[in-house]
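User: Fold this; tokens only.

Assistant: Input:
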Amino acid sequence: MTETASTQSERTVLVWDAPTRIFHWALVTLIVVAWLTGEGEGQSAAYHRYAGEAIAGMLVFRLVWGFVGGEHARFADFAAGPAAVLDHVRDVFSKTPKRHLGHNPLGALAVFLLLANVAAIVVTGLFSGGEDNSGPFAGVWGLELSEVHEMAFRVLQALVALHIFGVIVETLKARDALVPAMITGKKRRRSDEPGVDARRASAIALIAALLLGAAVSAVLISQPQVVLSSTSLGQSQAEEMDD
């Protein structure tokens, strides 16, 4: 009877704005596409490059959105120091974990690490060379970063696994439906829990962020395809070993 009363007194709170949710799932989709086409040739290699260049624009969008976006999308809303992260980890395994409207401190750390790591993958991908799959800047300044690109992706796989594990633990321990919230944008809160609908960003801010992101992707996609021969690749790798 108490649970029924508690459920009836719950309210729905808007947390995540549409641009943030679309960014999240579009990034997941493009990363999967890039992963599946990373070793491909021909058209598959082209998809890999386009996915990476689209991700580059999305990262620029998210960077801008982190300053001008909706309330809980802004970096200032969820940035947390090491002490807050440790306190949250202890709290999660307490009897009554605190539920956060936006990103919790550990989730905030995951966001920054994932964005930084994906950015590293994109940058190294732009300077990666291959006979069938080269970034638009492969060979520029003598750089050939395909090995670093591969290593960065392995780090991403580990971070994603940890992130998913954290989401599952938080969902079960705090009884907070994190995945549905990133789909609908809404969370349910009891009457005794704080929380109001998040402030939305202005249309001008959204248009500016979209235009900047689209411009970056368009510039990268417009770059001519670089084709490195096996001889060039061998010379580049030898130079790196000598350095």
